[in-house]
Amino acid sequence: MAEVDLAVDPAVAERVFGDRLPLARRYAEHLVTSGVERGLIGPREAPRIWDRHVLNCAVVAELLPEGARLVDVGSGAGLPGIPLALARPDLQVALVEPLARRVDWLDEVVADLGLDVRVDRGRVEDPAVRRRWEGADVVTARAVAPLHRLAGWALPLLRTGGRLLAVKGASAADEVARDAVAVRRLGGGDAEIVRCGTGTVDPPTTVVVVERVRGTGRPARRDRR
Ligand SMILES: C[S@@+](CC[C@H](N)C(=O)[O-])C[C@H]1O[C@@H](n2cnc3c(N)ncnc32)[C@H](O)[C@@H]1O
């Protein structure tokens, strides 16, 4: 494998990860070594692993309430769930991912980093998976599905008032406009586009935020009374 420069501005990385920066460095090393070898990350991503992946995801922590129960849907190589768990030890994080070889890698990396993070193999729309994680405060997803499909998967997992944080690229505004009606029908409020990490990552991370404002047809456990 090509040698990869894992340099990151220590002041920036320390601002995001604090005393867990050594663990974040170790995670970045996993990504560019076994993560690339085992097909979880494309080889072209290795040189930009900090900016485009680790930091880009970790800055979403700005939007997370203290102690939140967070479910990262379609976690792949743990993005954004692992950077968020590293940046914010107060969170309770679960990573949901259907593919066995990705789940195996996630299990190994979470164990190596000593993180208190649950890895759940399954599809998020599977009723058994849904039962395990419903009532969450936050659902995150990056590069998993269009907004209307994500809303259909995430809103039933959230407590009323909980929020879907979908990390998106240039398509964010178009997706919000296109899917507004579907999101409302699914129990979501008006989607908002928020930028995270200004001054830390360039460009800042674009996040589509959707709050669950009412039931989704099948109420979450905490709302079933
Ligand atoms: C393009 S990858 C993105 C991975 C990671 N979120 C990232 O940003 O690098 C999409 C991931 O979503 C997962 N996925 C696809 N459908 C899913 C579903 N129904 N439930 C949970 N995960 C799913 C795939 O297995 C894959 O790991």
Automatic annotation (TrEMBL):
One Gene Ontology cellular component annotation held by this UniProt entry: cytosol
InterPro entries: rRNA_ssu_MeTfrase_G, SAM-dependent_MTases_sf
GO molecular function: rRNA (guanine-N7-)-methyltransferase activity
Keywords, in A-Z order: Cytoplasm, Methyltransferase, rRNA processing, S-adenosyl-L-methionine, Transferase
Assigned EC number: 2.1.1.-
Enzyme class at the top of the EC tree: transferase
Localization (cell): Cytoplasm
Positions that bind S-adenosyl-L-methionine: 74, 79, 124-125, 142
Highest taxon above the source species: Bacteria
Similarity comment: family membership: Belongs to the methyltransferase superfamily. RNA methyltransferase RsmG family.
Function: Specifically methylates the N7 position of a guanine in 16S rRNA.
Stated name of the protein: Ribosomal RNA small subunit methyltransferase G
Gene coding for it: gidB
